Each structure stands twice: as C-alpha cells, then as structure tokens.
C-alpha cells in the first residue's frame, strides 16, 4: 500500500481548486496552491502530487501537464480533476504518461465524500496507488474507474437530466412538476432542472455533447435540443439570472402533504410487490378497511388499487379502479375504461408524493376517489400526463438501467455505483439499491414498457437487469 503524500500542489484557484486545497490542508498535508494564469514556478518541485483543477479544455490541460513535467521530480504524480475529459487524452504528449491519473472530486470538495481515481490507458500502478492513498488520507471514499466517458458516477447519472428533459419535451409534466416529484416522491435534495440551473446550462450542454461524441452517438446519451436553445438565448441558469427558473429564487416552496387519516370504507389492493404490501399497511393505518382481493370476498369496495394483479386473484370488479402505471400508459392498460392511474415507488414510507394520471375516458368520480385515497395516506398528489412510469419511476428506472450497462461494461462494481451516486451526487440511495427495493422485475417492466412505447434503442434494457429478473437475484450484490 502506498503512503499518502506529504506535500501536494493544487493548480487552479476556482471553486474546485480552492476546495481541494482546503481538504488536503485539513488532512495535515502541506499544500501549495497556484493560479495557472500567474504561471508555474519551481516551488512546486518538492510536491509528491499535483492536482490540476483548471477549466475543462483539453489543450489547456495537456499544456499544463507538459509544464508540470518540466518542474516536478520524476516520481511525482500529476492528477487531473476533470469530470468529463479523457485522462488518456490529457496524458497524450506527456514525456511520462504513466505518472498522469484522474482524481475526480465532487462539488463542493469539503462536503462531498467521494473521489474517483481514474486510470488512463498508460497510467502506472504506482501513480494510481499514490492518488488512492491521497484520497483516503483526505477522508474520502475512493472508487477506482477506467477512463470511459463520464467515468463511473457522472455516467450512471446521465438519465437524471436527460430523461427529465424528455419528460418535459413530451408534455408529461412541467420542469417545476418534475423537480417537485423528484424531491417529494424520491427524496432527492434537488430536482434535475434546479440542478441544471445550478451547474449552468452551458456546462450541462457541453457535458451532454461530450458524452454523445465520445460514445459515437449512443442513443441513451443524445443531447437535448431544449438545452441547446436555452444556451443560445443566454439563459444559463443562476449565473445569468434565469434558466428553467428566474433568479433570485426563494427556495422551491414544496407543499405540505395532508395529514394521514379519514379513510372510510373498503379498499382492495391487488398485487404481490413491496409497493402493494406497503399500500395495504398504509391504508389500514389511515382508517380504511384494507384487504387483498381474496380477503374482500366479493364485497363492494370504495376503490380497487391494482398494483399488478396475478392470474390467481379474483376478478377486480365492483368498484372504481386505480391502476399502477409501469409497463404501459393507462390508455393501453385500460383501453376505453374509466380507471385512473397512479405511480409511486417503494419504499413508500420515504415518499411524500404520489403521481396520478387520467386517460380521455377516466371517470371524474374515479379520479376524485383515487385522489382522496392517496391524500388520506398523507401524500401530496401531482397530476401528470399519461406515459409508462409517469415521472419518478421513469427517471429512477432509467438510472438503474444505465447503471446496469456500466456493470456490463466493467466500468465499476455494484457497491461503487451506489456509493458514487450517494456520496458524490447526494442521491438518497444508489441506483442498484433502488432496484432491489422496487424489485428488478418492476424496473424491467418500466424500461421495457418505454422501449415498447417509443421503439427507440435509447430504452433497450441492459443485460444485467434482464438476468437479475430471470435468476431472481438482487442487483446491489456484494461489495
């Protein structure tokens, strides 16, 4: 095991450079920070490790590597904090490319507990070991990743923005609705449109374009024309005063969910998923007479909540129905019927919101009783347009599918995927943990439903997801 460096240099005086320097100093390392605009001097020559955090331009980083090689001793390591540029490309032209590695910190470095150590094609084992030891000495959880587009964490997070943009483009929900659903329904600290405004829409589009180009046109990573138009209009987010939202903006003002209770009558919940069992329990606690189809014994219910009735269940009839929207839109699940649709993810206990939808034939009375039922469970209700998975399930299941593609390509281990999303991006849980809580079969139903609905390769299910369903094994797996 390599020893942690005692003296490090940080080249870059922006937010990331300053944050990395602070983390290293707090770890007891001697830190020399330099602004590349002022120039490099020979006083970096005693550094064991130099981390560059200059703007995301390949030529600038390549030139900086050559300048650092001229002043550093032969065994010093040069690490790039890039989030999207190939480490192999940054090291191209270096006299000793084996000393060049990636150390991707997350913003803000003092608060985010993750570092990705990235191996370029010619990065040496000793250099990687030193970078890993440095990250651990700074108190970070370190994951190893190969030099692929977005490395591991940003790659697995691609659908968080891209699928949200697609949802808005299709008119399923507005940006404010998507953000509210993701926050209140999924427990995310920020919605995707808030996050794009914070990062900057110009940066967002540059990263989208970089992924698209590096992958030679992977359909899952197609950039958004909506973001391109926003950038062309100068609407870059917080830094320009407007983006998806106008600034200054006083928080998001999420509504307070109603208090649970007030249930009156029989509610039948069909299905054998984790969500079905949670709904049964929550309905009972809210005062409803909650029963499975077998337990209802033909009694007329106030509402039937269909979470995926099995062939063994008695016929679901005799009352208004709310159908879980996963593998298809409501209009396809109940063609010409009067049912309403809903979507929520397990674990229901961590959610403060349920999505509802209607078709052109949904009965107003069914819509009203469905909304009243979920409000009695203490959930805010958000009405959105009809599509497979509605909003939250579509985004989360797409995150799971992308993580499964990363696993199939050997980009990371299951535990690294989840640690990366939680510790690096503040997700409430990792994509693979989500999958095991929801159930891989339910995730596959949503992804396959999107694939069938749109007939696009963008939504093709990943092999590891299919295998998890076929073999009935969890996706999160051993660490």
Give the N-terminus to C-terminus distance in angstroms: 20 Å
Low-confidence stretches: none
Largest sheet: 7 strands, mixed
Structural class determined from secondary elements: alpha/beta
What is the general shape?
A: elongated
Helix content: 40-55%
Number of helices: 19
**Rg over CA atoms:** 25 Å
Give average pLDDT, whole number: 94
| Main β-sheet, spatial strand arrangement | 2-1-3-4-5-6-7
Strand content: 5-15%
Q: How many beta-strand runs?
A: 14
List keywords for this structure.
single chain, 479 residues, alpha/beta, seven-stranded mixed beta sheet, elongated
Structure description:
With 479 residues, this protein is of the alpha/beta class. The chain is built from 19 helices and 14 strands. A 7-stranded mixed beta sheet has the order 2-1-3-4-5-6-7, with helices on both faces. The relative contact order is 0.09.
What is the element layout, followed by pairings?
Layout lengths: L6 E5 L3 H12 L3 E5 L14 E4 L5 H14 L5 E4 L6 H5 L8 E6 L8 E6 L5 H13 L3 E6 L6 H4 L1 H12 L5 H12 L5 H8 L1 H14 L10 H8 L33 E5 L3 H12 L3 E3 L1 H4 L6 E4 L14 E4 L5 H4 L6 E4 L9 E6 L5 H13 L3 E4 L8 H17 L5 H12 L5 H8 L1 H15 L8 H9 L8
Parallel strand pairs: 1-2, 1-3, 3-4, 4-5, 6-7, 8-9, 8-10, 10-11, 11-12, 13-14
Antiparallel strand pairs: 5-6, 12-13
Helix pairs in contact: 6-15, 9-10, 15-17, 15-18, 17-18, 18-19
Q: Would you summarize the structure shown here?
A:
This protein is of the alpha/beta class.
């Amino acid at each position: 095991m390599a020893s942690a460096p005692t003296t490090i240099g940080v080249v870059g005086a922006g937010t990331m450079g300053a944050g990395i320097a602070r983390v290293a100093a707090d770890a007891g390392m001697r830190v020399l920070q330099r602004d590349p605009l002022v120039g490099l001097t020979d006083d970096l020559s005693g550094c064991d490790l130099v981390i560059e955090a200059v703007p995301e331009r390949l030529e600038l980083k390549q030139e900086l590597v050559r300048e650092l090689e001229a002043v550093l001793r032969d065994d010093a390591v040069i690490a790039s904090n890039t989030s999207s540029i190939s480490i192999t490309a940054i090291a191209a032209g270096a006299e000793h490319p084996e000393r060049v590695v990636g150390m991707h910190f997350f913003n803000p470095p003092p608060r985010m507990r993750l570092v990705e150590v990235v191996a370029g094609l010619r990065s040496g084992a000793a250099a990687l070991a030193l970078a890993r030891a440095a990250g651990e000495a700074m108190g970070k959880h370190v994951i190893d990743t190969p030099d692929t587009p977005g490395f591991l964490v940003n790659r697995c997070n691609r659908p968080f923005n891209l699928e949200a943009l697609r949802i808005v483009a299709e008119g399923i929900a507005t940006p404010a609705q998507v953000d509210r659903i993701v926050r209140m329904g999924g427990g995310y600290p920020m919605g995707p449109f808030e996050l794009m405004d914070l990062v900057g829409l110009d940066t967002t589009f540059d990263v989208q374009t970089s992924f698209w180009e590096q992958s030679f046109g992977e359909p899952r990573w197609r950039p958004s024309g909506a973001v391109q138009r926003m950038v062309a209009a100068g609407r870059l987010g917080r830094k320009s005063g407007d983006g998806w939202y106008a600034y200054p903006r006083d928080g998001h003002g999420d509504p307070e969910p109603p208090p649970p209770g007030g249930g009156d009558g029989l509610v039948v919940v069909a299905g054998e998923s984790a969500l079905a069992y949670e709904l049964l329990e929550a309905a009972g606690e809210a005062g409803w007479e909650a029963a499975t189809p077998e337990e209802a014994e033909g009694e007329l219910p106030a509402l039937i909540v269909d979470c995926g009735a099995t062939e063994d269940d008695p016929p679901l009839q005799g009352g208004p129905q709310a159908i879980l929207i996963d593998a298809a839109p409501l209009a396809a699940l109940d063609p010409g019927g009067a049912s309403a649709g809903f979507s929520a993810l397990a674990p229901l206990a961590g959610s403060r919101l349920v999505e509802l939808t209607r078709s052109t034939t949904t009965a107003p009375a069914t819509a009203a009783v469905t909304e009243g039922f979920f409000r009695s469970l203490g959930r805010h209700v958000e009405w959105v347009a009809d599509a497979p998975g509605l909003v939250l399930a579509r985004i989360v299941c797409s995150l799971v599918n992308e993580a499964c593609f990363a696993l199939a390509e050997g980009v990371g281990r299951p535990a690294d995927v989840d640690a990366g999303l939680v510790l690096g991006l503040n997700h409430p849980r990792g994509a693979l943990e989500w999958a095991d809580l929801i159930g891989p079969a339910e995730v596959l139903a949503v992804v396959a439903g999107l694939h069938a609905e749109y007939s696009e390769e963008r939504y093709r299910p990943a092999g590891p997801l299919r295998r998890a369903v076929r073999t009935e094994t969890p996706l999160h797996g051993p660490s």
